[in-house]
Structures are given as structure tokens and as C-alpha cells.
């Protein structure tokens, strides 16, 4: 017998469909970069992090390797270390090794299963530290768990230059919510990508092997496969360039011809050459970022960079 009950879509895919339809209905068209990270997109991002052209990950890692012991001493004992977008918590391990008597580590990530697996491994490697994973979208309000031993303050770790993917007003809002969360005595350790020559920046987002292009265009595959949309992915290309005025890399998907995307009953018309915006990646000076953070109630305390000043890790206090 046929099951005629309407299928119930998961809330996450409803949000995806809603955001895609809304974004493609706008002028100019846009798609939110948070949807890059399905299974294939996350694997492609891992590949990006290993590319020669993508200096960000290895440079931040080198800064952490070199200065983690100094960073650890800036964070007072009794802290609850909360990491925003913890992923595999790789950089955090260096920090955990140098923290003075932390009360607990709270990795926050949207991917529940991956988070639980990472937490299990951390419990084995750090048997004296309470590991309290939280599945949440950190751009929305979420509560922190209670640790067995009460924390005196909160230290937020936000590596990876992820803050660069937010527009300045959104970044300021997010930093304000972090500063409110930290409480007095607390602080934020954050990774930011620095302003530099255009060639280095544009190469990082236009790699020779085409991994960033595949990562960007994967968003169209997702829409095609998950929303059962009629899209010819081959008829689009990746575009990334530096906008000097706004100090940011801008990423788009360009339509190679006049065409139509169909999702259910709705059609979206594209002209040849039309751009769909997918991501901004803001680049900061330490002074510029400090001014933004100051507006959100956080004051620059210390900063660490690599010798070429490609990337910086800042400690900001409430
Ligand atoms: C996650 N985020 C910091 C990356 C960036 O560099 O803005 C995302 C990315 N987009 C293309 N390449 C990498």
C-alpha cells in the first residue's frame, strides 16, 4: 500500500530551502556561505586548508605553535574555555596544553555527530578536564552548560578568521554577545586574516587546482540535489576578487549564459554574466579590528603575528 502521508522535511532543510529561495529572489542574488559546509563542502574546505596558496591555516597554526605558552598565561586560572565553531578542535589542543587550571572546555559546533566524536577523543587525551560539547549555531543565542567546578570567568576561543566571513555590523553584534558572555575577568582569543598585497589574497581564493571553485560551486550541487532543483551546475563559474575599499575578498558564482533555475514551482531567471554573491572574507589591520572590537566592549590586550604579518591572533579583554 502506498504511504500517502506528507513527508516531513527536517527543520534544517526547511531553513535551507527558505534561505535559498529568499536569496535567489533578491537583487542582486545571494546565497548564504554557511551552507557551504555539507559533507562534500567540509571535505573540500579541509583540502583548501592544505593548499599552498591558502596561507591562512598553516600561518595561524604556526603562530599557535610558537606562542601558545604565552597565550595560555594571559588566560587566568579557573576559566571555562568556549570555542566557537570548534570543528576538529585541532588548534585548541595546543592551547589546552598551556592553560592554567581550566575548569572545562566547551566546544560549540553545529555538526552534532562530529562534535560528539571529537569530544570523546578529547576526554581520553585530557582525562582531568571536563569536556562539555554544545551543538549550536553560535550566531544565535545559546546557553552554556554548568561545569562540575564553577568557572570564575569565560575565555572564548574563535580561531580560523571565521569572523572575516561576517559583515562588519554582524561581526560587531557577534563580538558584543561574546563580550557579554565572557563577564569581567574574561576575554576572547581570536584569529584574524590581515590586509596584505592583492596577489597573495587573490591567489588564496583562486587556487590553481580549482579546489576553491569546486567548494563554491558545491553550493549549487547542494541546491540541485537537496531541493531537487533544475540547475545546470556546468553553466556557472567561480569568481573571487579583492575589493580594496571594503578590505575584503568577494566570492560569487557567475552564470555563463542566460538561463533559468527552477526550484519546485518557482523559477529564477539569470542573465549571461550575472553574479550570485556567496561569501565575503574580510581582511583587517590589527588597529582596524581593535576599533571594531572596542565598539563591542572588548579591548585589545595582546597580539601575536607571524614574521610576514600575514595573520594575527589577538587577545581582547572585557
Ligand atoms: C572559513 N573561512 C575563514 C574561509 C575564508 O578564508 O574566508 C572560507 C573560505 N572560502 C573560500 N576559501 C576559504
TrEMBL record:
One of its GO terms (molecular function) is L-histidine N(alpha)-methyltransferase activity. Residues 16-316 form the Histidine-specific methyltransferase SAM-dependent domain. This is Histidine-specific methyltransferase EgtD. Keywords: Methyltransferase, Transferase. InterPro entries: EgtD (IPR035094), EgtD_Methyltrsf_superfamily (IPR051128), MeTrfase_dom (IPR019257), MeTrfase_EgtD-like (IPR017804), SAM-dependent_MTases_sf (IPR029063). Its EC number is 2.1.1.44. It holds the Pfam family Methyltransf_33. The gene is egtD. The keyword Transferase applies. It is an enzyme of class 2 (transferase). GO terms for biological process: methylation.
Amino acid at each position: 500500500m502506498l504511504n500517502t502521508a506528507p513527508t516531513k522535511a527536517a527543520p534544517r532543510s526547511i531553513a535551507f530551502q527558505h534561505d535559498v529561495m529568499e536569496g535567489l529572489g533578491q537583487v542582486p542574488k545571494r546565497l548564504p556561505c554557511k551552507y557551504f559546509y555539507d559533507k562534500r563542502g567540509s571535505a573540500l574546505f579541509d583540502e583548501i586548508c592544505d593548499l599552498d596558496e591558502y596561507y591562512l591555516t598553516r600561518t595561524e597554526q604556526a603562530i599557535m605553535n610558537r606562542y601558545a605558552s604565552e597565550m595560555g598565561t594571559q588566560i587566568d586560572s579557573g576559566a571555562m574555555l568556549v570555542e566557537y565553531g570548534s570543528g576538529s578542535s585541532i588548534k585548541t589542543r595546543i592551547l589546552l596544553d598551556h592553560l592554567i587550571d581550566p575548569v572545562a572546555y566547551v566546544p560549540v559546533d553545529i555538526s552534532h555527530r562530529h562534535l560528539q566524536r571529537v569530544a570523546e577523543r578529547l576526554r581520553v587525551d585530557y582525562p582531568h578536564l571536563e569536556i562539555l560539547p554544545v551543538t549550536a549555531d553560535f550566531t544565535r543565542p545559546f546557553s552554556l552548560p554548568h561545569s562540575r567546578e564553577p568557572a570564575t570567568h569565560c575565555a572564548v576561543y574563535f580561531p580560523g578568521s571565521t569572523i572575516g566571513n561576517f559583515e562588519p555590523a554582524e561581526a560587531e553584534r557577534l563580538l558584543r554577545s561574546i563580550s557579554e558572555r565572557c563577564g569581567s575577568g574574561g576575554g576572547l582569543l581570536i584569529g584574524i586574516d590581515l590586509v596584505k598585497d592583492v596577489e597573495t589574497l587573490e591567489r588564496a581564493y583562486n587556487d590553481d587546482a580549482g579546489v576553491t571553485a569546486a567548494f563554491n560551486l558545491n553550493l549549487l550541487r547542494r541546491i540541485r540535489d537537496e531541493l531537487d532543483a533544475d540547475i545546470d551546475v556546468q553553466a556557472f563559474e567561480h569568481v573571487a576578487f579583492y575589493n580594496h575599499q571594503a578590505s575584503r575578498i568577494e566570492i560569487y558564482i557567475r552564470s555563463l549564459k542566460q538561463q533559468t533555475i527552477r526550484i519546485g514551482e518557482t523559477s529564477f531567471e539569470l542573465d549571461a554574466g550575472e553574479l550570485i554573491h556567496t561569501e565575503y572574507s574580510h581582511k583587517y589591520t590589527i588597529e582596524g579590528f581593535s576599533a571594531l572590537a572596542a565598539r563591542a566592549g572588548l579591548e585589545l590586550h595582546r597580539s601575536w603575528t607571524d614574521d610576514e604579518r600575514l595573520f594575527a591572533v589577538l587577545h581582547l579583554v572585557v
